[in-house]
Amino acid sequence: MERKLPFQWQHNEFREAFGAFLDKEAVPYYDQWCEQHMVPHEYFEKMGQAGFMAMWVDKKYGGAGCTADYLYTVIKAEEYSKRGLNCIFSRLSGDVVAPYIAEDGSEEQRQKWLPKVVKGEVVLGVCMTEPDHGSDLANIETSAVDMGDYYLVNGTKTFISNGMVADALVVAVRTDPNASKPHRGISLLIIETDREGVSRHLIPKIGLQAQDTAEVSFENVKVPKENLIGQENRGFYVLMHHLEAERIMAAYGSIGTVEHSLSLTADYVKQRKIFGAPLSSFQNTQFKLAEMYTEYNLALNFLDNVLLDYMAGKKDINTECSMIKYYTSELAFSVADRCVQMFGGYGICTEMPIARQFCDARIMRFMGGTTETQMGVVAGGLGIK
Q: How many whole angstroms separate alpha carbon 296 and alpha carbon 290?
């Protein structure tokens, strides 16, 4: 199926160059990173040196100036996925979190942080989820008490991607515990991870083994006032604005996982013989793959259209963003599950790539907001209350 995304020659050249970069700098080391449960900081630096980090950033901050062209981010997601590199969250740092600073931060913050992100010298993460509140962002408890020229931050965040490798985190904190509505008392702070009182520990997971998901605690952490992003007590609205892009990018990660799972399985069934014939010759195999490829193309077409609307600045696409995020993440796991079944016993062997796809895909149903959270957004957008 021909895609409607307006890829040009420069995008195609970028795809070729980025793919070659991954084959040299990521693929040979990926198993090692999975064993270490972390993509090293050095990888982000190499991406920056090659000019692949945060390409949308304005040239005056060291970026390539590809403003509003998310096709480069899509290409990165697709090239990662087709190689099974699901754990490399460079896009989180450069394409999801950095825009908080670029769009809502001060000029001083942009000058301080964006050039370092572009170069890969600084890796970013975002801290929203808390142990007792999950997706209920309006009722977070991590506090930031105004102490004059700084905030005193206390609390714990959990399931933080890039949590161990990050040099700085955009943290949602409560600055007004007496706000008329809980979401009106939330602010965003940039907190450097080397500040006194910041502690982190890795969370073991069943999938995404090289992704350093962490719990981050703040104990009497002093954060200067100049680290406040935007206006005090307006952080919730900033978060909601940026969640659209995050969910679109999460959807491309999921749809890429679908494509890779199908590719692995299509190759396998042609080679695997059972009862004296290739597995692909059986009608059940053919129908199952036909079904999954159809679902994949339908989802990809919807996703590409949502991205086109987003790039065009179309308003009120929050419902569509949640629709496609929940659907692609559910599809990623469903396809991986069906593909494992077609591999038979080999599908659960850890040395088989499809087994890794299965475990990785299970986690995607949580990332960027759980399926249930997305369905709530969709229901609200449809006026179903």
A: 10
The answer to whether residues 199 and 250 belong to one domain is no
Asked whether residue 1 is assigned to any structural domain, the reply reads no
Residue type, 264: L
Q: For residue 111, what are the domain limits? A: 9-122
Concatenated DSSP letters of 278-319: EGGGSHHHHHHHHHHHHHHHHHHHHHHHHHHHHHTT-S--HH
**Longest CA–CA separation in the chain, Å:** 78
Three-state secondary structure call for residue 197: coil
Whether residues 178 and 280 share a domain: the answer is no
**DSSP run (H or E) holding 372:** helix 371-381
Give catalytic residue positions.
246
Torsion sign, CA atoms 150, 156, 159, 163: positive
> Length of the chain in residues, anyone?
385
Q: Which of 374, 34, 17 is closest to 211 using CA atoms?
A: 34
With respect to residue 3, please indicate whether it lies within any of the assigned structural domains.
no
Burial string for 88-123 (b: 16+ CB within 10 Å, else e) reads: bbbbbbbbbbbbbbbebbeeebbebbbbbbbbbbbb
- Give the 3-state secondary structure of residue 146: strand
| Cβ-contact 125, 166 below 8 angstroms | yes
Instruction: Give the pLDDT confidence of 246-267 residue by residue, as tens digits.
Output: 899 999 999 999 999 999 999 9
**Tell me, what CATH number does 149's domain have?**
2.40.110.10
Residues 304 and 369 occupy one common structural domain: yes
Report field, pTM of the whole predicted structure over 0.85: yes
99, 221 Cβ separation under 8 angstroms: no
Question: Structural domain tally of the chain?
Answer: 3
Same-domain status, 243 and 372: yes
Q: What's the sign of the alpha-carbon dihedral 260, 262, 264, 266?
A: negative
Question: Last residue of some domain: 81, 98, 122?
Answer: 122
The predicted-structure confidence for 145-204, as pLDDT tens digits, reads as follows 999 999 999 999 999 999 999 999 999 999 999 999 999 999 999 999 999 999 999 999
Residue 64, token pair as written in the block: 């390539």
**DSSP string covering 227-270:** GEESSTT-HHHHHHHHHHHHHHHHHHHHHHHHHHHHHHHHHHHH
